[in-house]
Design a protein that fits this description.
The chain is mainly alpha-helical. Helices cover 64% and strands 0% of the residues. Helix 2 crosses helix 3. The longest helix has 28 residues. It starts with a helix and ends with a helix. The relative contact order is 0.09. About 19% of the residues have low confidence.
């Protein structure tokens, strides 16, 4: 198991090459350029890019477009609140990143594919909510 930062960075290089990692829009992610190169503490922190997929891509994949939209909204609000108390420029930058991702997801609603994905997830959520109605009836 890797222990040092260099060992983790080396492992990330291998995984990224094997996985051919993709960006949020399906485009190839920028090539890994070595430890901490190509990374930015706001837009692309190195600790969220280990394993061939960025954490935000995995989150979006797991929670779907509706969950992702509101996840971005929540994080934007969090960084809007805490910038005064922590690292102002970094937190304001993170707020902007999450707001940009939120706007991009809203823009996807203008496409047939985007609306179809949202409606599919809404149907899944509806089924989930209605399943509690059955539980309330003692079934």
């Amino acid at each position: 198991m890797p222990g040092t930062k260099d060992e983790w960075d080396s492992l990330a290089v291998c995984r990224n090459r094997l996985a051919g990692s993709r960006g949020l829009g399906g485009e190839p992610s920028p090539a890994y350029e070595g430890p901490m190169k190509g990374f930015d503490p706001v837009d692309r922190p190195s600790h969220y890019n280990i394993g061939g997929i960025e954490a935000i891509e995995y989150i979006k994949q797991q929670i779907g477009p509706i969950g992702y939209f509101f996840y971005c909204e929540g994080n934007s609000l969090k960084y809007s609140h805490r910038w005064r108390y922590k690292d102002p420029m970094k937190d304001l930058g993170k707020k902007q990143v999450y707001s940009t991702w939120m706007k991009a997801e809203a823009d996807r609603l203008k496409t047939v594919e985007g609306r179809t994905e949202w409606l599919k997830q809404l149907e899944e959520l509806k089924s989930f909510v209605l399943s509690f109605e059955e539980v309330g009836k003692g079934k």
